[in-house]
Design a protein that fits this description.
Blueprint (H helix, E strand, L loop, with lengths): L1 H4 L6 H11 L1 H21 L3 E2 L7 H9 L10 E7 L8 H15 L4 E5 L6 H7 L6 E8 L3 H6 L1 H8 L5 E5 L1 H35 L2 H25 L5 E2 L1 H30 L4 H28 L8 H21 L1 H9 L18 H12 L1 H16 L20 H12 L1 H4 L1 E8 L8 H15 L4 E5 L10 H9 L7 H10 E2 L2 E8 L6 H10 L4 E2 L2 E6 L1 H35 L3 H26 L4 H4 L9 H32 L2 H29 L6 H33 L8 H14 L6
Parallel strand pairs: 1-6
Antiparallel strand pairs: 2-4, 2-5, 3-4, 7-10, 7-12, 8-10, 9-10, 11-12
Helix pairs in contact: 2-12, 3-10, 3-14, 9-10, 9-11, 9-27, 10-11, 10-13, 11-12, 11-13, 11-26, 11-27, 12-13, 12-23, 12-26, 13-26, 15-27, 16-24, 16-28, 19-20, 23-24, 23-26, 24-26, 24-28, 26-27, 26-28, 26-29, 27-28
Length: 756
Amino acid sequence: GEDSAAGGAPSLFARLAVGVFRHRGRVLVGTLLLLAAAVWALLQGGHLTTGTIEGIESARAEALARGAAAGSNDQTLAVIFHHDAWTPDDPRFARAVTSVLSRVQRLPEVASVVSPIGAPEAFRARFVAQTGHDLLALVRLKGGEREATAAIPAVRAALNDSGLQTTLTGKVAFLAALNELLEHDLLRAELLSFPLALVVLLWVFRTVVAAMLPLVVGGLAVLCGVAGVLMLSHVTNMAQYTLNVVSLIGLGVAIDYSLFIVSRFRAELARGLTTEQALTRTLDTAGRAVAFSGLAVTVGLGGLLFFRGSYLSAMGLGGALVVAFAVLFALTVLPALLAWLGPRVDRGRLPFARAEGRGGGWHALATWVMRHPWWVLLPTLTLLLAMGLPFRRLQLAATDITALPEGTEARQGAETLARLFPREAATRVLVAVEFPGGNPLTPERAGALHDASRRISALPGVLGVESAVTLVPGMDRATVQRMAAAPPQFLPADVQAARAAYVTGNVAVMQVLTSAAPSSVEARNLVRALREDRVVGDGRWQVGGQTATDVDAAAFVKHHTPAAVGFVMGMTCIVLFVLLRSVVLPLKALLMNLLSLCGSFGALVWIFQEGHLHRLLRFEPGPIEPSLPILLFCALFGLSMDYEVLLLSRIREEWLRTGDNTHAVAEGLERTGGLITSAAAIMVAVFAAFTLASVVVVKAMGLGMAIAVALDATLVRVLIVPAMMRLMGDFNWWGPGHWRRSHARAQGTRGTEVRP
């Protein structure tokens, strides 16, 4: 807005305001068409998955073992049959199980069914519980994770009406339940966040019409953002969590941006400007801040694109998309509505409305901060650093079955499986041995596999090894080699079954069983030990499974984080430098963002990992999801710029007008403090709605963002930032000689024309 303020050519934002004012009808019609397209996209649906990371070792191991029936449990359902009176030896029990599994086997989505009915005694003993009333069957589904998850309803329908109690569990059942809960959490959070935001908006604006406008923009942004994610899911992998991220971020930033613009528009109208003049002035100031803020948020989320091949990059893409919609609607649809409303924006004044104007409380706070900067700075810095200390104890692990509420079938089934069939429920580490070519069970290779299985069995915490050369009891190395040399048709039935289950192509599969929990240190140490010596004869193995995925995911995030963090911080500096024309203030902004994130991350570990407040928030403590810290960093780093841009833009306006740093900082704080805390209250209300989610990672995401925004808007932006700027004085505005001369000219030629 500097050119227009100086009487020169209108700025881009001033021209945008004039265009929207004159063509507001076309803008609103175009918005309706875009809304119709978004609704159409929502009706088409999408193909959302859970979080996956391509290229890591655990994924390669899963790919190698995919052709083996016992190679992976990812597409396998565990079905527990129970009858209060019948036993598995009862013919009625056997007929009922055989009948229902026959229906399941005929489903086009089912690849195979394994049942103890009619199986060899050694195999049957593993799948019949000692209770005498429970039996376990395994249903392997076709396709990948997405197709297997989609097949759950058909399998569940086929299992009904068997006269037996049936319980489904396994990874596929967990993913299906998780997706259903995520959809439910998203709907509930949105239904709660809109009323909460409306209450805060009514308190801020004191008029119904003004309070409704940000909700309109927020709803449009989220609707179009979700529609965009669903459309993208047809051409790239999009995790189910992306919808929650889009809703969480989109609603918060869209309402905040609208709050800034509506507040400035009403203030300009109150000064006596016409509707067109007020709109032009609003977009020239608040609109410019919104555009730069949106760019900063997009840059922050753009850091997730460095995690290529993972669900994090999809989340970054979805988040950037919804922020772009929020900025677009805030700079077009909202001004069109304001142009149509004009002074009617203040219609529906509430009984508790107060007179507009500068609040005495913010004036007093600004004055006090300017007089006592050290008394403000030192205690608040100490508090934030102390809050961040628990982050040093961070532990990472992927979401598992404990993320589901206790009443869900998949979790109850997992607990029943662990109680009745402990060996089948034990943690499994996949070892896929790839040979150069040919049969992996030649006598030489079979002997090497037998030696490797003995070596693995001796590792700490290993309960046993299941493979083609160990599944049948009593087979020593010589016996294994003799059977490997024998024609397949002369082998015992149980040996043939073991070969069919644990061999595919030139790959031999082993399942290493351990009693350690998948996310435990012991299980991770086992994975690392297995990866130290990979040689098996002329073959080598890859290690997979849930624990290996946790190890690989943490390493993947750690490897890509420096580049992502460097990009976000570097680009944020550039954006703020262009906006503020200062070298010092962007660096100070980075430090302030890190402080608020420090406190938020520490609180996250203290609450969710160490279990404080677990009764109040109703969750089971455990390690943090590996993606959560970097996701919060990228999202919150950009969101924190909302308040930084708003505050510093207003301070800069006053500094250009007066050249007095102390006065500019005090005036900027006084003018924007109430708006910042109000905007933060809205965002905290939106984020807090997600703490009621059933899924722990969504609960942690919502609470972590709410804490970070609350800290940022209270301790950081209205206390630490003004105190530091007061202490740094005119050094705040230091820049290269060209920019210093530009500032001097701006102060001399435009100072009397720029208004706060």
